[in-house]
Amino acid sequence: MMTEDQAHEKLKVLKWPDGIPTCPICGSKQSWQVDARKWKCRGKRIDATTGKERWCYYQYTITTQTHLHSRKRSLKHILAACLSFVNGVLGAAALRQRREIKNSYKTPFVFQHRIRAAIDAANQKQLADGPFMEGEVEIDGMFVTGRKVKLKAPITDEKELEKFFETYRETHTALVVVRERRAGGSDVPGRVRTIHVAKEGDSIPFIRRVVKTGTTIHADYSSQYNPLRMFYPMQRVNHSKTYKEGDACTNQAESFFSRVRAAKEGVYRSWRKKYVSWYGVEMAWREENSRIPNGDQVDLVLKALLQLGRSPITGYWQEHKRKPLF
Ligand SMILES: [Zn+2]
User: Fold this and answer.
1) Alpha-carbon dihedral sign for residues 35, 39, 43, 46
2) Which CATH code is given to the segment(s) 136-288?
3) pTM of the predicted structure, to 2 decimals
4) Which of 125, 136, 238, 256 is most buried, judged by most C-beta within 10 A?
5) 116 C-alpha to center of ligand 1: Å?
6) What is the pLDDT of residues 262-316, one digit of tens each?
């Protein structure tokens, strides 16, 4: 097991690749060392209230103003929790983590949400640079939350299927996946993103933000996706008859959902509606990074936790209101 100092050294390199402590408020690399793991900023910044330049003097550690802000666990515990998170192929049940790391149920529960929030923040940052998926993309939706609807007879045509889905949409929400196919011969895995929406059609603005114009989109015949025809060449597959029609195919999106279902039923047991989008973020991340070694996956998680701003769920259990910075 790593010592706390070793854990700190590892995180420091991930946080500041050049090894120089940097103020999270003004970005200055000038600092005094207060103690082994704390620095005080020597930079200058504009004071928010007076509008005048002043000394920064902000005191910070490697976790200040990151997704690990106001952490209560030691750094070595955080590393162990990240490793455990990465090791669960179908997701890591908070209860299993409690056994492994010996803390309460809510600590790993909240910490996992911090990881999801950090991955989500990294995704949002990427989205700000514009659409990034290209080539061939598959989209599909899965109904989540709400009760199951029993089928009276097998569905045989697309009209009946659409009618059946109509009833579903009244009581259920949808998790929509946008999955890029891996380019032929390439080692780079296709990117995977999800969005939680009231009905599949609501995912169209998101799909447009993610997928580059001119990309071929594969989808089923659901009329929910029809508006996409204005922006992308489309291949449709009739799911009531077959899973593959000519070149049209959504098998990779389907296989993602079979893993999501296995995780939902086997690991997490239940997803509360308000967390569905975060579970989607997690599952998409696992799918996309499934081919890279565990150690690198841990580093990816830690970078997201340390390099992006504060978590929206700091003080989650206390329901603390987020305080403004100054
Ligand atoms: Zn500063």
Assistant:
1) negative
2) 3.30.420
3) 0.82
4) 256
5) 28
6) 888 776 666 778 888 888 999 999 999 988 898 999 999 999 999 877 765 544 4
